[in-house]
Amino acid sequence: MTWPVLFVSHGSPMMAVEPGRAGVALAQWSAALAARPKAILVVSPHWRGHGLAVTTRSQQQAWHDFGGFPAELYQLRYDAPGDPALAGRVRGLLGQAGYTVQEDAAQPLDHGAWVPLRYLYPQADVPVVQLSLDAGLAAEGQYALGQSLAPLRDEDVLIIGSGSLTHNLRDVRMPQDAPPCSYVPGFQAWFAQQLQAGDVAALLDWERQAPGARLAHPHDDHLMPFYVALGAGGLPAHRLTDEISYGALAMDAYQFGDR
User: Fold this and answer.
1) Extradiol ring-cleavage dioxygenase class III enzyme subunit B domain: from which residue to which, for each copy (predicted)?
2) How far apart are CA 63 and CA 66, in angstroms?
3) Which of 7, 38, 78, 179 lies most in the core, judged by the most C-beta atoms within 10 Å?
């Protein structure tokens, strides 16, 4: 099986206990598949640095890399196996493409990884490897990196880019279903339109062309996993959900490539 690739918006850490439509959509997506992946590779902005690193742990654990949330969140676990062999394969593929990738045997799964995985594979029985997000790459560079990972799709590996289609924490408002900020629907719609049209060049030029780009992303870190996923999976794109959470967080999820 050639696996599709996912981009998921992980929103607030509260998604771990407040699934909303986005969590339900992820659970339905995995439940509808006739197969399960041999392993998962996930990229999240919450493990980010200059250059690349990959986790080589044989046993994963959830990192509660946030503060000020209800106590129940800090009790949640996601004890999936790791996959050192997959980590080595990732290093090999990226090395062939000219990237240097460090090994990290200590890094746990940040909430951008384990929170959506709790809906996709709640039994935590699929091995997981995390690849760090390279802060030095803009959209075009992230897209090219994703293309280098594409052979994993034919090796029973599910690739996931986890971020947020919009992410302006200064505009977050309560409750979860608060009315959306004015720029969020337009930004969502622009991405959906370019994906439907297959206009990758426009998507890579999002900072100039997307309406409300700097309001939607004062910093681009949560959008960059989208481009890793797009590069790895290619078109067509299938939109799984378009929920807006806390007014400012577009929770869009996309499947790239056919099943």
Assistant:
1) 6-237
2) 9
3) 7
